[in-house]
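Take a specimen:
=====
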Amino acid sequence: YPNEYLVLIYNYFFEVSNSLEILTFLLKRIDKFRDKSSLVVLIDSLLMKGKLAQRIPDTDNLTRFRVNITKALANTKDSQAVYPLLYCLNSKDENYKIKLSCAEALGKIGDKYAVLPLMNILEDESEQSVYVKESAVSALGMIGDDKAVDSLVSILESKKGFLDKFTFLKERALEALNKINHKGDEKVMKALRHSLSDESPQVRINAIEVLMNSEE
């Protein structure tokens, strides 16, 4: 069969198959071709509009499979996937593993429409998973929009409290700043100098690296 027919066949059986083994095979094939016609199929399955939960009744298997769907969507680099990924990321009832993978996918797609929602994740006090916040920080770094600078600086300036307990979140914030143009921003320089005296050796190392790159 020509490739365009193969994709249509893969898409069809992806929507109707009840076998996890077959679905996994089909997802790999769909991800290989990355045809635009597969976007709707992948998005519907991520959102479970095709009643994917009934076809994969085991919760752990369903979660792992949906995580793999987000990876396939990230590989398309298509902005049509941004809104569905944001929907899952912002759902209070969503599994945290799905949220992590959605944030990563948004970073890989690189659409700046995702910047403000990702910033909101960092500022949302009701979001209790620091790992979701970490993924949002990394995604902002991948997108590289300077609108995220203030949110990243706020993480570095956090005092003894919820965020300060997790030094790896500061490490990710510094890594993100290293990918974003912040030259001439005094708030950033102040936060970097403050990070030089952080209790975490890795935070101090990351801060030095950002400062060195800022002077280039």
Q: What stands out?
A: The chain has 13 helices and no strands. The radius of gyration is 20 Å. The longest helix spans residues 59-76. The mean pLDDT is 93.
